[in-house]
Amino acid sequence: MTPKKIIIDTDPGIDDAMAIFLALRSPEVEVIGLTTIYGNVYTTLATMNALHLLEVAGRTDIPVAEGSHVTITKGTKLRIADFVHGSDGLGNQNFPPPSGKAIKQSAAEFLVEQASLHPGEVTVVALGPLTNLALVLSVLQAIELDPAFAKNVGQIVLLGGAFCVNGNVNPASEANVFGDPEAADIVFTSGADVVAVGINVTHQVVLTDADREKLANSNGKFAQYLCKIMGIYYSYHHDAYSTRGVYLHDPTTVLAAVNPSLMTYTEGVVRVQTVGITRGLTILYNKQKRFEEVTEWSDKPTVKVAVTVDAPAAVKLIMDRLMES
C-alpha cells in the first residue's frame, strides 16, 4: 500500500520526540512535514527542537513550518510544561542549536498548501494545542487562508481530551485542550474527519522502567537518544502518579494514524468548556437521546473518539521500531 502522507503538528517535548521517531520508522506513513506550536515549550523552542530531531534522524529533507505563538484568541499567557520535559523540552540536555531553519511559510499556510496539493490524502497528527488547525478551520479565519481546508484534509488525528476521566492539568482538563480550549472547540466542531485520542486511552499505554532498560541495552540509534533525554520524564511520572513508568501520549496518537485497528472508537459530538473552573473540559454527546431544545449541541458534526487500545501490542510496536532504528 502507498504510505499515508502525514504532517505532525508538534511541541517537542520528550514524548513528541518518541512520536516523531516512531513515525519516521513506520513504513505505513510518510512524514511530509512538521509544524510547530507552543505547549511543552514555547513555539520558537519547539521549532528548534523539531529541526534538531530531524537532524538526529538524518531527515533534514523534511520541512519544518513554525506555528502560532499565541492562542486563537490572541492570548499570550501560555502554559508551558517545562517541569515535565525540562527547560529545553528535551530532558535538560542542552543540545547545540540545529543548523537547519524553518521554511518561510507559517504552519497554517503549510497545512493549507499541502492539503490543497494532495486533497483527501494528508493526515494531520496534532500532538499539542490545536491553534494552528483552528486557524485554518475557523469560519472567520479560514476566509483568509482556505475555506475548503476541512474538506481537503484527509483526517486529523489529535491528542486531546480526557473523556470520562480526570485531566492531567487539573481534574477537568487535559493539557493540549487546556492550552487553547477555544481552538479545540473549533476543531471538534469543524466538520473535518477528526479522531481524538484522549488521556483515557494514552494512560493505558505505559513504558515501564523495565522497558526503558531494554531500550538502553539495544543498539537502536533512536532508542539510545531517547534514553538520554527521558530521565526527567520518568522522574515526573514517578512523583505525580506513583507509577514505575511513563505514559506514551504522543506515540500512541501516532499509532492511531499508523495502525488504527489497535484502538476501538465511539462517535459523537464533542464540545469544549471555555470558561470557569472546568475550562478545557471535553464532553462527548453520544446522540443516544434526542433532545427537544435547540442548544449549542444541535446539528454539530460528529467526531471519532478512541475508547480502548491494545496496550501490549502498542508498546511492543513502539519499542520494536525504536530498537531497530
TrEMBL record:
<dbReference type="Pfam" id="PF01156">
    <property type="entry name" value="IU_nuc_hydro"/>
</dbReference>
<dbReference type="InterPro" id="IPR001910">
    <property type="entry name" value="Inosine/uridine_hydrolase_dom"/>
</dbReference>
<dbReference type="GO" id="GO:0042454">
    <property type="term" value="P:ribonucleoside catabolic process"/>
</dbReference>
<keyword id="KW-0326">Glycosidase</keyword>
<dbReference type="GO" id="GO:0046982">
    <property type="term" value="F:protein heterodimerization activity"/>
</dbReference>
<protein>
    <recommendedName>
        <fullName>Inosine nucleosidase</fullName>
        <ecNumber>3.2.2.2</ecNumber>
        <ecNumber>3.2.2.3</ecNumber>
    </recommendedName>
</protein>
<keyword id="KW-0963">Cytoplasm</keyword>
<dbReference type="InterPro" id="IPR036452">
    <property type="entry name" value="Ribo_hydro-like"/>
</dbReference>
<keyword id="KW-0378">Hydrolase</keyword>
<comment type="similarity">
    <text>Belongs to the IUNH family.</text>
</comment>
<dbReference type="GO" id="GO:0006152">
    <property type="term" value="P:purine nucleoside catabolic process"/>
</dbReference>
<dbReference type="GO" id="GO:0005829">
    <property type="term" value="C:cytosol"/>
</dbReference>
<dbReference type="InterPro" id="IPR023186">
    <property type="entry name" value="IUNH"/>
</dbReference>
<feature type="domain" description="Inosine/uridine-preferring nucleoside hydrolase">
    <location>
        <begin position="6"/>
        <end position="314"/>
    </location>
</feature>
<dbReference type="GO" id="GO:0045437">
    <property type="term" value="F:uridine nucleosidase activity"/>
</dbReference>
<dbReference type="GO" id="GO:0047724">
    <property type="term" value="F:inosine nucleosidase activity"/>
</dbReference>
